[in-house]
Amino acid sequence: MRKFMRFAGIALILAGVLLGGLRISQDRRQTHEYSQAQGEMRRQLSQVVRKEPRPREGEPVAVLRIPKFGAGYRPVVVEGVSQQDLAKGPGHYTGSAMPGQIGNFAVAGHRTGWGQPFNRLGELKPGDSIVVEWRGRDLTYRVTGTERVKRTQVGVVLPVPDRPGVKPDKALITLTTCTDRDPVSRRYRLVLVVRGELSAR
Questions:
Q1: How high is the mean pLDDT in each 10-residue block of the chain (201 residues)?
Q2: Domain boundaries, position 90
Q3: 0.85 cut: is pTM over it?
Q4: What is the DSSP track for 66-88?
Q5: What is the DSSP string of 87-109?
């Protein structure tokens, strides 16, 4: 019995090491692919003088800066929020306002994996700056609040958040990312929402 228990213990340790190694390998691959996609989109963004009002899905939109996260924090936002889009960087919810426009410029991003661009969103407090570099301008939004909502509460990205059918009269920003992972299923249960309002055009 002791030999069996010892063998089972060793087997479990080896399985844990193997799974941990696979996870590290997967994280490295995702980070590498994210970095390559960000570099390519940054190159595209610097070369394109866009005439049409909206980029196509998968194309770069703008650069996001959050001074609180340091000078190196400058992810390129991609158009769209599909899995493929979010593997490249934070994604602009297609159909939401463009930067600086009246309405809600809504952006989703990964909290873990794929460069984890939104893993520090929980640190933001009212008054913190969110800067969007768009078409040669720096648009500064000020954080007005944060909240955690159920994943089904999609109204957070409406033109006037959580108020369907209401006409917007302000330029807003909403950043969303998954949070509160279930310890058993490992699925995220809630969405962290950071809201802001344009303070300078």
A1: 57 50 60 77 72 81 96 96 94 96 96 87 96 94 95 93 95 92 74 91 52
A2: 2-200
A3: no
A4: -GGG-TT--PEEEE--SHHHHTT
A5: TTS-EE-TTSPPTTSSEEEEEE-
CA 163 to chain CA centroid, Å, is 23
Contact call for residues 101 and 171 (beta carbons, < 8 A)? yes
Contacts of 173 (CB under 8 A, 6+ apart): 104, 105, 106, 107, 130, 132, 141, 195, 196, 197, 198
Domain count of the fold of the chain: 1
CATH code of 164's domain: 2.40.260.10
Angstrom distance (rounded) from CA 178 to CA 193:
9
User: What pLDDT score does 197 carry?
Assistant: 97
